[in-house]
Amino acid sequence: MKQVDYQSVMARRNDTMLTALGLDYSPFLENPIAFDYEGLMGMVEYDIDTIRRIQADSGVGNTALIELKQITELGRLLAPAGKGARIFVKDEAANPSGSYKARRASLSLHHAQKSGFRGAVAATSGNYGAAVASQAAMRNLDCVVVQEVFDSLGIGQPEILEKGRACEIYGAEVLQLSVGPELFYQFLRVLEETGYFNASLYTPYAIAGVEPLGVEIVEQMTAATGRAPDVVMCTHAGGGNLTGTARGLIKAGTTETQVVAASVDLTGLHMASDRDFNRKHFTTGHTGFGIPFAGWPDRTDVPRNAARALRYMDRYMLLKQGEVFYMTEILARLEGLERGPAGNVALAGALALAQEMDENQTIVVQETEYAGAGKQPSAQLSFARSNGIDIRRGDSEEEVPGESVVIPDHPSRLRVRDVDLDRVRKSLIRKAASLAPEGRVTREEDILFLAEETRTDTDFVSQVLESDAGAP
Amino acid sequence: MQSHCGQWVQIRTTILPPDARAEAIPAETREVPLEMRIKGWQVSPETATTGDTVEVRSTLGRHYRGQLEAINPPYGHDFGAAIPELLEAGEQARAILSQGKEAT
One matching Pfam family, short form (chain B) (predicted)? Predict the structure, then answer.
Protein backbone atom coordinates (compact mmCIF):
# COMPACT_ATOMS: atom_id res chain seq x y z
CA MET A 1 0.00 0.00 0.00
CA LYS A 2 1.30 3.43 -0.95
CA GLN A 3 2.25 5.88 1.78
CA VAL A 4 0.00 8.93 1.56
CA ASP A 5 1.81 11.32 3.89
CA TYR A 6 2.85 14.70 2.50
CA GLN A 7 6.51 13.82 1.82
CA SER A 8 5.74 10.49 0.13
CA VAL A 9 3.03 11.91 -2.13
CA MET A 10 5.15 14.91 -3.09
CA ALA A 11 8.12 12.63 -3.82
CA ARG A 12 5.97 10.78 -6.36
CA ARG A 13 4.68 13.98 -7.94
CA ASN A 14 6.40 13.67 -11.34
CA ASP A 15 5.25 10.11 -11.91
CA THR A 16 1.74 10.91 -10.75
CA MET A 17 1.43 13.93 -13.01
CA LEU A 18 2.80 12.15 -16.06
CA THR A 19 0.59 9.09 -15.64
CA ALA A 20 -2.39 11.40 -15.39
CA LEU A 21 -1.64 13.31 -18.58
CA GLY A 22 -1.35 10.66 -21.25
CA LEU A 23 1.47 12.70 -22.79
CA ASP A 24 5.18 11.96 -23.01
CA TYR A 25 7.13 14.99 -21.84
CA SER A 26 10.51 13.22 -21.77
CA PRO A 27 11.80 14.70 -25.07
CA PHE A 28 11.25 18.16 -23.57
CA LEU A 29 13.08 17.46 -20.33
CA GLU A 30 16.44 16.39 -21.72
CA ASN A 31 18.00 19.78 -20.96
CA PRO A 32 17.30 21.95 -17.94
CA ILE A 33 16.85 25.07 -20.11
CA ALA A 34 16.21 24.66 -23.83
CA PHE A 35 13.45 22.48 -25.20
CA ASP A 36 11.51 22.35 -28.46
CA TYR A 37 8.46 24.49 -27.61
CA GLU A 38 6.81 24.03 -31.00
CA GLY A 39 7.45 20.33 -30.62
CA LEU A 40 5.63 20.43 -27.29
CA MET A 41 2.66 22.19 -28.88
CA GLY A 42 2.94 19.69 -31.73
CA MET A 43 1.83 16.91 -29.35
CA VAL A 44 -1.66 18.18 -30.13
CA GLU A 45 -2.36 16.13 -33.22
CA TYR A 46 -5.13 18.36 -34.61
CA ASP A 47 -4.88 21.32 -36.94
CA ILE A 48 -6.76 24.49 -36.12
CA ASP A 49 -9.80 23.61 -38.23
CA THR A 50 -10.16 20.26 -36.51
CA ILE A 51 -9.87 21.95 -33.12
CA ARG A 52 -12.64 24.34 -34.10
CA ARG A 53 -14.86 21.44 -35.16
CA ILE A 54 -14.20 19.57 -31.91
CA GLN A 55 -15.05 22.67 -29.92
CA ALA A 56 -18.15 23.49 -31.94
CA ASP A 57 -19.32 19.94 -31.17
CA SER A 58 -19.31 20.83 -27.48
CA GLY A 59 -20.91 24.24 -27.90
CA VAL A 60 -17.66 26.13 -27.46
CA GLY A 61 -16.45 29.16 -29.42
CA ASN A 62 -17.90 31.27 -32.22
CA THR A 63 -18.83 33.94 -29.70
CA ALA A 64 -20.05 37.34 -30.78
CA LEU A 65 -17.72 40.26 -31.40
CA ILE A 66 -19.38 43.42 -30.10
CA GLU A 67 -18.28 46.97 -30.85
CA LEU A 68 -18.37 49.12 -27.71
CA LYS A 69 -19.45 52.31 -29.39
CA GLN A 70 -20.20 54.42 -26.33
CA ILE A 71 -17.01 53.41 -24.52
CA THR A 72 -15.11 54.24 -27.71
CA GLU A 73 -16.86 57.64 -27.68
CA LEU A 74 -15.93 58.16 -24.03
CA GLY A 75 -12.29 57.43 -24.88
CA ARG A 76 -12.38 59.95 -27.72
CA LEU A 77 -13.82 62.66 -25.46
CA LEU A 78 -10.90 62.12 -23.08
CA ALA A 79 -8.22 61.85 -25.78
CA PRO A 80 -6.42 64.52 -27.81
CA ALA A 81 -8.06 65.35 -31.16
CA GLY A 82 -7.77 62.52 -33.68
CA LYS A 83 -7.01 59.96 -30.97
CA GLY A 84 -9.27 57.27 -29.53
CA ALA A 85 -9.20 53.80 -31.07
CA ARG A 86 -12.39 51.79 -31.66
CA ILE A 87 -12.90 49.21 -28.91
CA PHE A 88 -14.47 45.78 -29.49
CA VAL A 89 -15.06 42.88 -27.13
CA LYS A 90 -15.31 39.11 -27.67
CA ASP A 91 -18.31 37.98 -25.66
CA GLU A 92 -16.77 34.82 -24.27
CA ALA A 93 -19.42 34.70 -21.54
CA ALA A 94 -21.52 32.96 -24.20
CA ASN A 95 -19.46 29.77 -23.89
CA PRO A 96 -21.20 26.83 -22.13
CA SER A 97 -19.68 27.45 -18.68
CA GLY A 98 -19.74 31.24 -19.04
CA SER A 99 -16.11 32.01 -19.83
CA TYR A 100 -13.36 31.44 -22.39
CA LYS A 101 -12.04 28.71 -20.07
CA ALA A 102 -14.48 26.36 -21.82
CA ARG A 103 -12.07 26.53 -24.76
CA ARG A 104 -9.21 25.26 -22.61
CA ALA A 105 -11.33 22.55 -21.02
CA SER A 106 -12.99 21.29 -24.20
CA LEU A 107 -9.89 20.16 -26.04
CA SER A 108 -8.34 18.75 -22.83
CA LEU A 109 -11.41 16.67 -22.08
CA HIS A 110 -11.71 15.56 -25.67
CA HIS A 111 -8.16 14.24 -25.33
CA ALA A 112 -8.92 12.69 -21.91
CA GLN A 113 -11.93 10.85 -23.25
CA LYS A 114 -10.09 9.67 -26.34
CA SER A 115 -7.22 8.41 -24.15
CA GLY A 116 -9.63 6.33 -22.10
CA PHE A 117 -9.71 8.33 -18.86
CA ARG A 118 -13.00 8.00 -16.98
CA GLY A 119 -12.76 11.36 -15.30
CA ALA A 120 -10.76 14.55 -14.88
CA VAL A 121 -9.27 16.44 -11.94
CA ALA A 122 -8.52 20.14 -11.92
CA ALA A 123 -6.84 22.25 -9.28
CA THR A 124 -8.37 25.69 -9.72
CA SER A 125 -10.31 28.31 -7.81
CA GLY A 126 -11.37 30.06 -10.99
CA ASN A 127 -13.73 29.75 -13.94
CA TYR A 128 -11.69 26.80 -15.16
CA GLY A 129 -13.27 24.53 -12.55
CA ALA A 130 -16.75 25.15 -13.94
CA ALA A 131 -15.38 24.77 -17.46
CA VAL A 132 -13.89 21.33 -16.77
CA ALA A 133 -17.01 20.28 -14.85
CA SER A 134 -19.26 21.42 -17.68
CA GLN A 135 -17.20 19.72 -20.39
CA ALA A 136 -16.98 16.55 -18.26
CA ALA A 137 -20.74 16.59 -17.75
CA MET A 138 -21.47 16.65 -21.47
CA ARG A 139 -19.07 13.72 -22.01
CA ASN A 140 -20.40 11.67 -19.10
CA LEU A 141 -16.99 11.83 -17.40
CA ASP A 142 -16.42 12.26 -13.67
CA CYS A 143 -14.93 15.53 -12.48
CA VAL A 144 -13.18 16.46 -9.25
CA VAL A 145 -12.24 20.09 -8.62
CA VAL A 146 -9.79 21.01 -5.87
CA GLN A 147 -10.25 24.64 -4.86
CA GLU A 148 -8.65 27.12 -2.49
CA VAL A 149 -11.76 28.72 -1.03
CA PHE A 150 -11.60 29.66 2.65
CA ASP A 151 -9.35 31.39 5.11
CA SER A 152 -8.70 29.71 8.46
CA LEU A 153 -11.98 31.12 9.83
CA GLY A 154 -13.90 29.30 7.11
CA ILE A 155 -14.70 32.54 5.28
CA GLY A 156 -14.60 32.72 1.49
CA GLN A 157 -15.18 35.76 -0.66
CA PRO A 158 -18.33 35.85 -2.80
CA GLU A 159 -16.59 35.41 -6.14
CA ILE A 160 -14.81 32.22 -5.03
CA LEU A 161 -17.95 30.81 -3.39
CA GLU A 162 -19.75 31.32 -6.68
CA LYS A 163 -17.04 29.46 -8.56
CA GLY A 164 -17.45 26.53 -6.16
CA ARG A 165 -21.22 26.53 -6.59
CA ALA A 166 -20.87 26.52 -10.36
CA CYS A 167 -18.70 23.37 -10.20
CA GLU A 168 -21.30 21.64 -8.04
CA ILE A 169 -24.12 22.50 -10.39
CA TYR A 170 -22.27 20.71 -13.21
CA GLY A 171 -21.96 17.64 -11.01
CA ALA A 172 -18.34 17.89 -9.89
CA GLU A 173 -17.07 16.64 -6.57
CA VAL A 174 -15.68 19.84 -5.09
CA LEU A 175 -12.92 19.72 -2.48
CA GLN A 176 -12.80 23.12 -0.82
CA LEU A 177 -9.52 23.90 0.91
CA SER A 178 -8.23 26.61 3.17
CA VAL A 179 -5.35 28.82 2.05
CA GLY A 180 -2.02 27.33 1.07
CA PRO A 181 0.02 25.97 -1.83
CA GLU A 182 -0.08 22.48 -0.28
CA LEU A 183 -3.40 22.19 -2.10
CA PHE A 184 -1.18 20.54 -4.68
CA TYR A 185 -0.66 17.61 -2.28
CA GLN A 186 -4.41 17.00 -2.07
CA PHE A 187 -4.65 17.31 -5.85
CA LEU A 188 -1.96 14.63 -6.28
CA ARG A 189 -3.76 12.37 -3.81
CA VAL A 190 -6.97 12.62 -5.85
CA LEU A 191 -5.05 11.82 -9.05
CA GLU A 192 -3.51 8.77 -7.36
CA GLU A 193 -6.80 7.58 -5.90
CA THR A 194 -8.88 8.00 -9.03
CA GLY A 195 -6.50 7.49 -11.93
CA TYR A 196 -8.34 10.34 -13.63
CA PHE A 197 -6.91 12.77 -16.16
CA ASN A 198 -4.95 15.78 -14.90
CA ALA A 199 -6.94 18.55 -16.59
CA SER A 200 -4.13 21.02 -16.08
CA LEU A 201 -4.55 24.52 -17.44
CA TYR A 202 -1.05 24.28 -18.86
CA THR A 203 -0.96 21.27 -21.19
CA PRO A 204 -0.54 21.79 -24.95
CA TYR A 205 -4.24 20.86 -25.27
CA ALA A 206 -5.33 23.57 -22.86
CA ILE A 207 -3.38 26.17 -24.84
CA ALA A 208 -4.20 24.90 -28.33
CA GLY A 209 -7.85 25.11 -27.26
CA VAL A 210 -7.52 28.90 -26.99
CA GLU A 211 -5.99 29.37 -30.43
CA PRO A 212 -9.37 29.48 -32.23
CA LEU A 213 -10.16 32.57 -30.15
CA GLY A 214 -7.34 34.40 -31.92
CA VAL A 215 -8.46 33.10 -35.29
CA GLU A 216 -12.07 34.18 -34.67
CA ILE A 217 -10.87 37.66 -33.71
CA VAL A 218 -9.06 38.07 -37.03
CA GLU A 219 -11.99 36.72 -39.04
CA GLN A 220 -14.62 38.82 -37.27
CA MET A 221 -12.54 41.99 -37.27
CA THR A 222 -11.79 41.56 -40.95
CA ALA A 223 -15.52 41.26 -41.59
CA ALA A 224 -16.31 44.27 -39.39
CA THR A 225 -13.45 46.66 -40.25
CA GLY A 226 -11.68 45.19 -43.25
CA ARG A 227 -8.54 44.13 -41.40
CA ALA A 228 -7.06 42.52 -38.31
CA PRO A 229 -7.08 44.61 -35.10
CA ASP A 230 -4.13 46.81 -34.17
CA VAL A 231 -4.20 45.63 -30.57
CA VAL A 232 -5.60 42.62 -28.75
CA MET A 233 -5.84 43.12 -24.99
CA CYS A 234 -5.72 40.04 -22.76
CA THR A 235 -6.35 39.86 -19.04
CA HIS A 236 -3.22 38.07 -17.84
CA ALA A 237 -2.65 35.67 -14.95
CA GLY A 238 -1.14 32.24 -15.68
CA GLY A 239 -0.41 33.15 -19.29
CA GLY A 240 -2.57 30.63 -21.15
CA ASN A 241 -5.13 33.16 -22.28
CA LEU A 242 -2.53 35.41 -23.86
CA THR A 243 -0.39 32.58 -25.25
CA GLY A 244 -3.28 30.76 -26.92
CA THR A 245 -4.84 33.93 -28.31
CA ALA A 246 -1.54 35.22 -29.67
CA ARG A 247 -0.78 31.88 -31.32
CA GLY A 248 -4.23 31.97 -32.91
CA LEU A 249 -3.59 35.46 -34.27
CA ILE A 250 -0.39 34.18 -35.87
CA LYS A 251 -2.16 31.11 -37.28
CA ALA A 252 -4.70 33.46 -38.84
CA GLY A 253 -1.83 35.13 -40.65
CA THR A 254 -1.53 38.39 -38.72
CA THR A 255 1.88 39.64 -37.70
CA GLU A 256 1.19 43.32 -37.10
CA THR A 257 -1.32 42.97 -34.26
CA GLN A 258 0.12 43.95 -30.89
CA VAL A 259 -0.70 41.68 -27.97
CA VAL A 260 -1.06 43.61 -24.73
CA ALA A 261 -1.42 42.00 -21.31
CA ALA A 262 -3.33 43.58 -18.43
CA SER A 263 -3.34 42.57 -14.76
CA VAL A 264 -4.83 44.03 -11.60
CA ASP A 265 -2.09 45.45 -9.40
CA LEU A 266 -2.12 43.57 -6.09
CA THR A 267 1.44 44.47 -5.13
CA GLY A 268 2.06 43.87 -1.44
CA LEU A 269 -0.45 41.07 -0.92
CA HIS A 270 1.00 37.58 -0.49
CA MET A 271 -0.70 34.81 -2.44
CA ALA A 272 -0.20 32.20 0.28
CA SER A 273 -1.15 34.41 3.20
CA ASP A 274 -4.13 33.38 5.31
CA ARG A 275 -4.50 37.03 6.32
CA ASP A 276 -4.26 38.55 2.82
CA PHE A 277 -6.50 35.92 1.21
CA ASN A 278 -9.79 37.77 1.63
CA ARG A 279 -8.22 41.20 1.11
CA LYS A 280 -7.73 40.54 -2.59
CA HIS A 281 -10.89 41.67 -4.36
CA PHE A 282 -9.93 39.92 -7.58
CA THR A 283 -9.38 36.21 -7.51
CA THR A 284 -7.51 36.07 -10.82
CA GLY A 285 -6.13 38.31 -13.54
CA HIS A 286 -3.85 39.93 -11.00
CA THR A 287 -0.13 40.48 -10.50
CA GLY A 288 0.09 37.70 -7.91
CA PHE A 289 -0.06 35.27 -10.84
CA GLY A 290 0.71 37.54 -13.78
CA ILE A 291 4.21 38.69 -12.86
CA PRO A 292 5.62 35.36 -11.61
CA PHE A 293 4.13 33.38 -14.49
CA ALA A 294 5.44 35.84 -17.09
CA GLY A 295 8.87 35.71 -15.47
CA TRP A 296 8.94 31.93 -15.06
CA PRO A 297 6.20 29.79 -16.62
CA ASP A 298 7.41 26.42 -15.32
CA ARG A 299 5.77 26.66 -11.92
CA THR A 300 2.72 24.51 -12.60
CA ASP A 301 1.27 21.02 -12.42
CA VAL A 302 2.92 19.90 -15.69
CA PRO A 303 6.63 19.28 -16.38
CA ARG A 304 6.74 21.93 -19.13
CA ASN A 305 4.19 24.71 -19.26
CA ALA A 306 2.68 25.24 -22.71
CA ALA A 307 1.61 28.76 -21.68
CA ARG A 308 4.66 30.97 -22.25
CA ALA A 309 3.27 34.49 -22.31
CA LEU A 310 6.51 36.41 -22.51
CA ARG A 311 7.07 34.94 -25.98
CA TYR A 312 4.04 36.82 -27.26
CA MET A 313 3.65 39.90 -25.07
CA ASP A 314 4.26 43.29 -26.69
CA ARG A 315 3.27 45.31 -23.62
CA TYR A 316 2.04 44.60 -20.10
CA MET A 317 -0.21 47.11 -18.32
CA LEU A 318 -1.30 47.30 -14.69
CA LEU A 319 -4.74 48.43 -13.54
CA LYS A 320 -5.99 49.28 -10.07
CA GLN A 321 -8.80 47.26 -8.51
CA GLY A 322 -11.02 50.35 -8.34
CA GLU A 323 -10.49 50.97 -12.05
CA VAL A 324 -11.70 47.50 -12.98
CA PHE A 325 -14.79 47.77 -10.77
CA TYR A 326 -15.36 51.15 -12.40
CA MET A 327 -15.09 49.65 -15.88
CA THR A 328 -17.52 46.87 -14.97
CA GLU A 329 -20.05 49.55 -14.03
CA ILE A 330 -19.33 51.49 -17.24
CA LEU A 331 -19.78 48.38 -19.41
CA ALA A 332 -23.23 47.90 -17.91
CA ARG A 333 -24.21 51.57 -17.99
CA LEU A 334 -22.91 52.55 -21.40
CA GLU A 335 -23.10 49.29 -23.34
CA GLY A 336 -25.90 47.40 -21.62
CA LEU A 337 -23.61 44.44 -20.91
CA GLU A 338 -23.49 43.08 -17.37
CA ARG A 339 -20.42 40.88 -17.26
CA GLY A 340 -18.13 39.42 -14.61
CA PRO A 341 -14.82 40.96 -13.59
CA ALA A 342 -12.15 38.98 -15.49
CA GLY A 343 -12.32 40.50 -18.97
CA ASN A 344 -12.90 43.93 -17.55
CA VAL A 345 -9.27 44.15 -16.48
CA ALA A 346 -8.32 44.22 -20.16
CA LEU A 347 -11.27 46.50 -20.90
CA ALA A 348 -10.08 49.07 -18.35
CA GLY A 349 -6.66 48.87 -19.99
CA ALA A 350 -8.24 49.32 -23.40
CA LEU A 351 -9.98 52.57 -22.44
CA ALA A 352 -6.62 53.99 -21.36
CA LEU A 353 -4.63 52.62 -24.29
CA ALA A 354 -7.22 53.70 -26.87
CA GLN A 355 -6.46 57.31 -26.01
CA GLU A 356 -2.86 56.87 -27.18
CA MET A 357 -4.01 55.40 -30.49
CA ASP A 358 -5.46 56.97 -33.63
CA GLU A 359 -9.22 57.06 -34.22
CA ASN A 360 -8.92 54.71 -37.19
CA GLN A 361 -7.15 52.06 -35.14
CA THR A 362 -8.82 49.21 -33.28
CA ILE A 363 -8.52 47.28 -30.02
CA VAL A 364 -10.14 43.93 -29.27
CA VAL A 365 -10.68 43.00 -25.64
CA GLN A 366 -10.66 39.24 -26.06
CA GLU A 367 -12.97 38.02 -23.30
CA THR A 368 -15.93 38.62 -21.07
CA GLU A 369 -17.13 36.23 -18.35
CA TYR A 370 -20.58 35.49 -16.98
CA ALA A 371 -22.08 37.61 -14.22
CA GLY A 372 -24.15 36.34 -11.32
CA ALA A 373 -24.40 36.34 -7.54
CA GLY A 374 -20.95 36.76 -6.03
CA LYS A 375 -19.37 37.99 -9.25
CA GLN A 376 -20.68 41.53 -9.28
CA PRO A 377 -18.77 44.51 -7.94
CA SER A 378 -21.72 44.93 -5.56
CA ALA A 379 -21.00 41.51 -4.02
CA GLN A 380 -17.23 41.82 -3.91
CA LEU A 381 -17.23 45.40 -2.63
CA SER A 382 -19.97 44.80 -0.05
CA PHE A 383 -17.81 41.97 1.28
CA ALA A 384 -14.73 44.20 1.22
CA ARG A 385 -16.56 46.98 3.02
CA SER A 386 -17.71 44.59 5.74
CA ASN A 387 -14.05 43.66 6.22
CA GLY A 388 -13.06 47.25 6.85
CA ILE A 389 -11.65 48.03 3.39
CA ASP A 390 -11.89 51.74 2.63
CA ILE A 391 -13.97 52.20 -0.52
CA ARG A 392 -14.09 55.71 -1.88
CA ARG A 393 -13.92 57.74 -5.06
CA GLY A 394 -10.76 59.60 -5.93
CA ASP A 395 -7.42 59.27 -7.66
CA SER A 396 -6.87 55.59 -8.41
CA GLU A 397 -3.15 56.06 -7.82
CA GLU A 398 -3.94 56.34 -4.13
CA GLU A 399 -5.30 52.81 -3.89
CA VAL A 400 -3.40 50.52 -1.47
CA PRO A 401 -4.15 46.80 -2.09
CA GLY A 402 -5.56 45.23 1.06
CA GLU A 403 -6.49 48.60 2.56
CA SER A 404 -8.46 50.58 0.02
CA VAL A 405 -10.33 50.42 -3.26
CA VAL A 406 -10.43 53.77 -5.01
CA ILE A 407 -13.15 54.11 -7.63
CA PRO A 408 -11.87 56.71 -10.13
CA ASP A 409 -13.57 60.06 -9.64
CA HIS A 410 -13.25 60.66 -13.40
CA PRO A 411 -12.62 58.31 -16.35
CA SER A 412 -9.43 60.24 -17.11
CA ARG A 413 -7.93 58.61 -14.02
CA LEU A 414 -7.57 55.37 -15.96
CA ARG A 415 -4.17 55.53 -17.55
CA VAL A 416 -1.49 53.37 -19.08
CA ARG A 417 0.95 51.95 -16.54
CA ASP A 418 3.49 49.78 -18.30
CA VAL A 419 5.34 46.97 -16.56
CA ASP A 420 9.04 47.19 -17.43
CA LEU A 421 9.14 44.06 -19.58
CA ASP A 422 12.93 44.10 -19.83
CA ARG A 423 13.05 43.55 -16.08
CA VAL A 424 10.78 40.55 -16.41
CA ARG A 425 12.89 39.25 -19.31
CA LYS A 426 16.12 39.62 -17.36
CA SER A 427 14.59 37.84 -14.40
CA LEU A 428 13.62 34.91 -16.63
CA ILE A 429 17.12 34.70 -18.12
CA ARG A 430 18.71 34.76 -14.65
CA LYS A 431 16.43 32.07 -13.33
CA ALA A 432 17.27 29.91 -16.34
CA ALA A 433 20.99 30.52 -15.80
CA SER A 434 20.65 29.25 -12.23
CA LEU A 435 19.50 25.90 -13.66
CA ALA A 436 22.53 25.41 -15.90
CA PRO A 437 24.54 22.49 -14.54
CA GLU A 438 27.85 24.29 -15.01
CA GLY A 439 26.48 27.35 -13.18
CA ARG A 440 26.38 29.47 -16.34
CA VAL A 441 24.73 29.34 -19.74
CA THR A 442 27.25 28.45 -22.40
CA ARG A 443 25.36 26.42 -24.98
CA GLU A 444 24.32 28.20 -28.14
CA GLU A 445 21.03 26.29 -28.06
CA ASP A 446 20.15 27.67 -24.62
CA ILE A 447 20.93 31.25 -25.61
CA LEU A 448 18.75 30.93 -28.70
CA PHE A 449 15.95 29.41 -26.62
CA LEU A 450 16.12 32.23 -24.07
CA ALA A 451 15.94 34.80 -26.85
CA GLU A 452 12.71 33.16 -28.02
CA GLU A 453 11.39 32.83 -24.49
CA THR A 454 11.87 36.54 -23.86
CA ARG A 455 11.04 37.78 -27.34
CA THR A 456 14.45 39.39 -27.60
CA ASP A 457 17.60 38.42 -29.49
CA THR A 458 20.76 36.52 -28.65
CA ASP A 459 22.62 39.81 -28.05
CA PHE A 460 20.14 40.77 -25.34
CA VAL A 461 20.43 37.37 -23.68
CA SER A 462 24.23 37.36 -23.89
CA GLN A 463 24.41 40.85 -22.42
CA VAL A 464 22.28 39.84 -19.43
CA LEU A 465 24.36 36.71 -18.89
CA GLU A 466 27.63 38.60 -19.22
CA SER A 467 26.62 41.43 -16.92
CA ASP A 468 25.72 38.82 -14.28
CA ALA A 469 28.97 36.96 -14.80
CA GLY A 470 30.85 40.21 -14.25
CA ALA A 471 28.88 41.09 -11.12
CA PRO A 472 30.61 40.61 -7.77
CA MET B 1 -28.45 20.11 15.00
CA GLN B 2 -28.86 16.43 14.28
CA SER B 3 -28.12 14.92 10.90
CA HIS B 4 -29.35 11.59 9.62
CA CYS B 5 -28.13 9.01 7.16
CA GLY B 6 -29.04 10.01 3.61
CA GLN B 7 -28.90 13.75 4.24
CA TRP B 8 -26.66 16.02 2.14
CA VAL B 9 -24.12 17.32 4.65
CA GLN B 10 -20.82 19.18 4.77
CA ILE B 11 -17.85 17.76 6.63
CA ARG B 12 -14.49 19.22 7.49
CA THR B 13 -11.14 17.45 7.74
CA THR B 14 -7.61 18.49 8.51
CA ILE B 15 -5.22 17.69 5.68
CA LEU B 16 -2.09 19.05 7.33
CA PRO B 17 -1.72 20.18 10.96
CA PRO B 18 0.32 23.38 11.47
CA ASP B 19 3.54 21.50 12.22
CA ALA B 20 3.34 19.56 8.95
CA ARG B 21 2.82 22.53 6.66
CA ALA B 22 5.24 23.56 3.91
CA GLU B 23 8.16 25.68 5.01
CA ALA B 24 8.02 28.32 2.31
CA ILE B 25 4.69 29.86 3.29
CA PRO B 26 3.95 32.95 5.36
CA ALA B 27 4.05 32.56 9.16
CA GLU B 28 0.33 33.35 9.60
CA THR B 29 -0.53 30.47 7.25
CA ARG B 30 1.82 28.05 8.99
CA GLU B 31 0.10 28.75 12.30
CA VAL B 32 -3.17 27.23 11.11
CA PRO B 33 -4.00 23.78 9.72
CA LEU B 34 -4.72 23.13 6.05
CA GLU B 35 -8.37 22.14 6.07
CA MET B 36 -10.76 20.68 3.52
CA ARG B 37 -14.53 20.85 3.32
CA ILE B 38 -16.59 18.53 1.21
CA LYS B 39 -20.27 17.79 0.78
CA GLY B 40 -21.86 14.39 0.38
CA TRP B 41 -24.65 12.03 1.43
CA GLN B 42 -24.23 10.92 5.04
CA VAL B 43 -23.50 7.19 5.09
CA SER B 44 -22.75 6.65 8.78
CA PRO B 45 -23.50 6.88 11.63
CA GLU B 46 -27.30 6.74 11.65
CA THR B 47 -27.47 10.14 13.38
CA ALA B 48 -24.80 12.68 14.23
CA THR B 49 -24.42 16.11 15.76
CA THR B 50 -22.01 18.91 14.86
CA GLY B 51 -18.41 17.87 15.36
CA ASP B 52 -19.10 14.13 15.24
CA THR B 53 -17.05 12.07 12.81
CA VAL B 54 -19.22 11.01 9.92
CA GLU B 55 -18.68 9.25 6.61
CA VAL B 56 -20.14 10.72 3.43
CA ARG B 57 -20.47 9.53 -0.13
CA SER B 58 -19.68 12.26 -2.64
CA THR B 59 -21.72 12.87 -5.75
CA LEU B 60 -19.17 10.68 -7.60
CA GLY B 61 -19.55 7.85 -5.08
CA ARG B 62 -16.22 8.46 -3.36
CA HIS B 63 -16.14 8.19 0.43
CA TYR B 64 -14.74 10.72 2.88
CA ARG B 65 -14.62 10.91 6.68
CA GLY B 66 -14.57 14.11 8.67
CA GLN B 67 -16.28 16.22 11.30
CA LEU B 68 -19.87 17.13 10.60
CA GLU B 69 -20.12 20.86 10.04
CA ALA B 70 -23.55 21.52 8.56
CA ILE B 71 -26.62 19.94 7.00
CA ASN B 72 -27.04 21.19 3.44
CA PRO B 73 -25.45 24.59 4.09
CA PRO B 74 -26.74 27.49 1.97
CA TYR B 75 -24.29 28.85 -0.60
CA GLY B 76 -24.76 32.20 1.08
CA HIS B 77 -23.11 34.42 -1.50
CA ASP B 78 -25.41 36.99 -3.03
CA PHE B 79 -25.33 40.28 -4.92
CA GLY B 80 -24.45 42.42 -1.90
CA ALA B 81 -25.82 45.93 -1.82
CA ALA B 82 -25.51 48.53 -4.56
CA ILE B 83 -22.25 50.48 -4.32
CA PRO B 84 -23.11 54.20 -4.25
CA GLU B 85 -19.60 55.12 -5.44
CA LEU B 86 -20.17 53.05 -8.58
CA LEU B 87 -23.70 54.38 -9.11
CA GLU B 88 -22.27 57.90 -9.05
CA ALA B 89 -19.53 56.89 -11.47
CA GLY B 90 -22.11 55.47 -13.87
CA GLU B 91 -24.19 58.64 -13.76
CA GLN B 92 -21.10 60.74 -14.29
CA ALA B 93 -19.98 58.71 -17.32
CA ARG B 94 -23.39 59.11 -18.94
CA ALA B 95 -23.29 62.83 -18.25
CA ILE B 96 -19.82 63.15 -19.79
CA LEU B 97 -21.03 61.35 -22.91
CA SER B 98 -24.19 63.45 -23.18
CA GLN B 99 -22.29 66.71 -22.77
CA GLY B 100 -19.69 65.57 -25.27
CA LYS B 101 -22.33 64.73 -27.83
CA GLU B 102 -24.02 68.11 -27.34
CA ALA B 103 -20.69 69.91 -27.81
CA THR B 104 -20.02 68.24 -31.17
Answer: OrtA
Q: Which pLDDT tens digit goes with each residue over A6-54?
A: 999 999 998 898 899 988 999 999 999 999 999 999 999 999 999 999 9
Helix B84-103 with A377-386: angle, nearest 10 deg? 140
Give the chain A residue nearest B96 (alpha carbons).
A74
Look up the ipTM and state it: 0.96
Q: Which domains does chain A have, with CATH numbers?
A: 6-48+99-202 (3.40.50.1100), 56-98+207-413 (3.40.50.1100), 431-470 (no CATH)
Count of structural domains, chain B: 1
What element of type H or E holds A223? helix A211-225
In three-state secondary structure terms, A441 is coil
Number of residues in chain A: 472
Put simply, the chain A residues between 376 and 395 with a CB less than 8 A from any chain B CB are 376-383, 391-393
Please name the member of A175, A176, A373 whose beta carbon is closest to the beta carbon of B78. Answer: A373
pTM of the model: 0.96
Measured in angstroms, the CA of B46 and the nearest CA of chain A are apart by 23
Q: Residue A92, exposed/middle/buried by CB under 10 A (0-12, 13-18, 19+)?
A: buried
